[in-house]
Amino acid sequence: MARYGKFARMLVPAFAIGASLSAWAADEAQEFSSMQMTGVEPVEVQVDLEGAVQRLSKAVQFPTISNQDRSDFDEQAFKDYHQFIVDSYPLVHKTLKREVVGDPRPFSLLYTWEGKDPSLPPAIFMAHQDVVPIAEDSRDQWLVEPFSGAIKDGYIWGRGVLDDKNQIHAILEAAEMKLKEGFQPSRTIMFVFGHDEEVGGPEGAKVAADIIEQRGYDKIAFVLDESAPLTPGIFPGIRDNTALIGIAQKGYVSLELAIHAVGGHSSMPPEESNIVALAKAVTKVEEAQFPFKIHDAVRYQVRFMGPELPEAQQPMYQAVAYGNNDTMTELEQAFIEAMATNPVTRAMLRTTTAVTMFNAGVKDNVLPPAATAVVNFRPMPGDTPEVIIAHVKNVINDERITVRDISASTPATNVADPHGKGYQLLEKTIRQTWGNDLIVSPFFVIGGTDSKHFQSRPFAQDVYTITGIQLESTTEFEGFHGVNERILVEEYGRSIGFFYTLMDNLEAL
Ligand SMILES: [Zn+2]
Fold first, then answer.
1. Where would I find the Peptidase M20 dimerisation domain in this sequence (predicted)?
2. Domain coordinates of the chain in residue numbers?
C-alpha cells in the first residue's frame, strides 16, 4: 500500500451526506460554526513506561513481514512473536479467550474479553502484526537496523513501531493494567490482530470477521482500527495539531487485461503487435476516468473541519457540508475543482483508475504471443466489480482482450456515524489524552485497513480508524512504510493511556 494509502492527507475536504442530511438544503441558512468538543478535562494515566518500551522494542525484532509474493512467508517469525505476546501479558492470557485464526494460514489473533452484560453489543479493537518489507535501495538511509527495535535519542525505532505493533502493544498494555486492577468490562471486548493487513487481509481479518459474524452478534457497537496518527499539519491548510478519525473506506478491485494472439519472428511483424493492442486498451481505460461525486463521509468531514478553515471559503464548505446528493450547486462544483488539483484529495472524489503492471516479451527479436496488464481501482460506493468490469470492457471495445478480476476485491464500506456516541467518546478520549488544543475531524479513508472487512458488513459499520499516537511532524509520518520508522518513548506512554481511558469510556457507550 502506498505511503498515503491508509489515509488521505487532505488539502480540502468534502463528501455527500446520507438520508439524515438530505433534508438540509444548502440554501437554507444552516448554523455553520465549530463542532469541536470543548472543556474536556485531561486524564493522567500512570504507565510502566520502561517495561512497556522494552516489550515494544522486542516486538519489533520479530520480522513478521508481509511480502507481495505470498509464498514468501516466515511462519516461524509469527510463531515466535505469538509466544512472546503470551509470555509478556500473563493476566490477559489468564482471563481472555485466545484463538489463532486465519485461512489458509492461521496466524491472526482473536481475543475475547467476556463482558459482564451479555446483552450489550460488543466492541472490537483492531491492529495488525505484519509489517511491510524494507526496500533494498532504502536500507542505507536507515539510521538504525530496521528490525533492531533500538531505543535511542528518546525514540523507539524500527519497522512496525508505528505501523502497527505500537497499537497491538498499547492495547495489550492497557488491558493488562485494567486486569491488574480487577476491571471487567460491561460489554464484551474483542481484539483482532491480523497477520496480512499489508496485503489486504484476505487470510486474517476477513476470516476473523466471518467468525465473529457467525457467532450471532446482531451488532458490533464500536470498532477501532489504525489509520492516521495525530500530526500537526497533516491536513494541508491547517497547521494545528489534527486528529483525523476515519469513518469510511474505499473499496479495492484489480483487473487483469490480457491478449493472447499470434506471436512470431520480429522480421515479419503483423500490422499490430499484441503489445501495441494491449497498450491501446490500457490507454483507453486510463483516459476514461470515473466521474467525480461527493461522498457522504466527505460532507461529514467538511462539516467538522470547514468551520476551522479560512473565513473566505466558509460559504463553499457550508454548501458541501449540508448539500444533498441529488443536486450539485456551483459552490460544490468549485469545491470539486479545488479538490481535484491534488492527487490525494482527488482520490476522495471518484473511483480511481491506476495502471500498475504491464508484462510482455522475453527476447528482442521475438513477438510475444501474449501480453498482460493490471489496472487497480479504488471504488466509491456503488462501483461494484461488475460495474467496473462492464465499464472497462465497454471502453476497450476490443474482443481480443480479456478482462478478469484477480483481486480479493472489497467494496467501499458503510459510513460510521460521526454524530453518534461512539465518535463522541473517541473524541473525548483523544482530548482527555492530548488536550483541547487540537482539531478532531472525521475523514474519508482513500486506502483501507483490516477493519474494512467489518465496515463493509451491516452488523459492524460503526468503525472508527485512528492510530492513537502523537507524531511531532509530517516528517515523522514518512516512516510509515518508509525509512527510519520511529515513535517518541513519551508518546508511546500516552498511547497506552489513550487505550486505558478508552476502555473506561466504553462503559458509557
Ligand atoms: Zn498499518
1. 247-399
2. 47-249+413-508, 253-291+350-405, 296-347
